[in-house]
Write a structure and sequence with these properties.
5-stranded antiparallel sheet; about 260 residues; alpha+beta
Length: about 260
């Protein structure tokens, strides 16, 4: 079998172009993305729990967690994304809640304030930074009443870029190692395409879906979830409804109607 000079030249150019693409993807820095209203990420086997004591949930009861951006809010000297959070339980129930992520580092947390920065942009291989992770205890049933007991220093280091395979797809991602004071190390994988973590501490903690919910469907979807909450979760329902009102996603009449319906 013989090949023409034109065919060989075209093949070489394709290989060079593909190689340059991957080299660029590996070597260039990734800067802070701006999340948009409706962006959504779903993870399975993610170690994430609501902080409300009245729920009394265990991590073993949670199958999946979905985060959806519904807005932003000022807090002290920073701005945070507000994330409507859905806990999918193994018994089929879905418990709505809220988490937050500082716009400056996108580190999702249930706490009221930027307590940690697992991501520090721009990201590039070889970058290092320090994280001061607080150990927090709660003085009551509200996440707004907390006491920082101790601070644990962690060193973050962008080790490499890798092709990461997840149920949501295959992505080129940054592997970031986090070394704790006792020498223990865990890793997270961040994908510029997904604009979020695609693989967590445990090998089974992975992204299973990411999408964008249209703005005209977002409110309808959230209210539908709230209305389906069982009566035994009335306290959580009231918390969610008041938070939705606080964040101006619903008006006062809608909030009062939702609370009234839960008491029937």
């Amino acid at each position: 079998m013989t090949f023409s000079k034109g065919f060989l030249l075209t093949t070489v150019l394709i290989l060079v172009t593909v190689g340059s693409f991957f080299a660029q993807d590996i070597n260039q820095s990734t800067y802070l993305p701006l999340w948009k209203i409706g962006q959504s990420w779903t993870y399975k086997n993610l170690y994430a729990l609501p902080v409300h004591k009245w729920l009394n949930l265990k991590s073993s009861e949670i199958q999946k967690v979905r985060y959806t951006v519904i807005g932003t809010r000022p807090l002290d000297s920073v701005y945070e994304y507000i994330l409507f959070t859905e806990y999918f339980l193994k018994n089929g129930e879905i418990i709505p809640d809220f988490q937050y992520a500082p716009i400056s580092n996108l580190s999702i947390t249930p706490f009221e304030g930027p307590d940690s920065s697992y991501l520090d942009f721009p990201l590039y291989v070889g970058k290092e930074w320090k994280i001061m992770l607080p150990s927090i205890s709660y003085l009551g049933n509200s996440q707004e009443i907390k006491k920082i007991k101790r601070i644990f220093p962690i060193t973050a280091d962008v080790q490499s870029t890798e092709t990461t395979v997840t149920p949501a797809g295959t992505f080129v991602s940054y592997k970031i190692n986090y070394e704790q004071r006792d020498g223990a190390v865990f890793s997270l994988w961040y994908s510029p395409k997904v604009e979020n973590i695609v693989k967590g501490r445990q090998a089974s903690s992975v992204l299973v879906n990411f999408s964008t919910i249209p703005s005209n469907k977002l409110k309808e979807k959230i209210l539908g979830l709230v209305e389906k909450m069982p009566k035994v979760l009335s306290k959580q329902r009231s918390y969610v409804v008041l938070s939705l009102y606080k964040y101006k996603l619903i008006n006062l009449d809608e909030a009062l109607n939702l609370i009234h319906d839960s008491q029937k």
